[in-house]
């Protein structure tokens, strides 16, 4: 969700913009003056400025000038005005305005498209800055240049290696590798093949001052995703990184979609079972405790019949969020199907799993699902050291329905 600052002396137009931005799923702060705008920008968390051309204490040009050199200097600015001229447009675009819209031509579709693009780029930028990056080059000058470019663009987790052996001995893995082709002790394509062997999902960008189809085909054939020719500038390197990170992000998103439930965001039935089988294997190998909890929403059919299926979906999504927020990082939770949820507690004995399940029951019973209260029942079972995932879940499921028969809003196990 974007946070948008709107500056216009017209209270009516601020209201119109507020309704438009809210319909787009974003938040907006509306202020009448440049001074108010600069105060809001100084407080931070503004993703986009939408301003009228003329304000009582200045205008768009003076606002943009005042933003320069502050924390808001990189915030994109859209000017919305009722007047127009080529000279005016050229002057504003030269100041860095990203869009110029006439009030009488302000299209909701156009505005929505722009916000979607901005939100997508903002999400990509945030994702990029979380990446762990390794740069390998025997030239200290190149390492310094690449490091400076990455630092200027907000990357904070960058490790520099002046010899490939240092990278190969490094225990930490990276999301993005930027490697020179000509290196001491090992060829660039061999280094790429070693990285690809051990880090199949990583992004690998090779760089070299040499060009030629053979070197390019060798390095791509070894497993590199892209190639950049030296010398390069900041824009060129960032463009290569951005293109590859976008593909990497899409791949990760598709992988996530394959294992998650679309409504709740929790793991889906198939992947929950896969994780349970993995945990059973660990429990057998290391002779550790393992418990599972089957949770079912009490009287959920009544929720759907009384309030509609949309409200029922909201309740399920809310339950998924509450479960995710009240479990340990090592715990695994998935939507088993319908209104049933499966929680896997690794290295947890029956008594502790039962206590954790009862805590979840209490938190859910106390939670306000937008004016609606719900309760859940649950069954808890502990792995006996031999049984299959199917039998373990069946035991927890039987205990769940025992809890239903005993009056609901309770735990059995």
From TrEMBL:
GO terms for cellular component: plasma membrane. InterPro entries: CheY-like_superfamily (IPR011006), Diguanylate_Cyclase (IPR050469), GGDEF_dom (IPR000160), Nucleotide_cyclase (IPR029787), Rev_trsase/Diguanyl_cyclase (IPR043128), Sig_transdc_resp-reg_receiver (IPR001789). Residues 3-118, 132-245 form the Response regulatory domain. It comes from the Bacteria. Transmembrane segments: none annotated. GO terms for molecular function: diguanylate cyclase activity. Pfam families: GGDEF, Response_reg. The modification 4-aspartylphosphate is found at residue 180. The keyword Phosphoprotein applies. One of its GO terms (biological process) is negative regulation of bacterial-type flagellum-dependent cell motility. Residues 288-413 form the GGDEF domain. Keywords: Phosphoprotein. This is diguanylate cyclase.
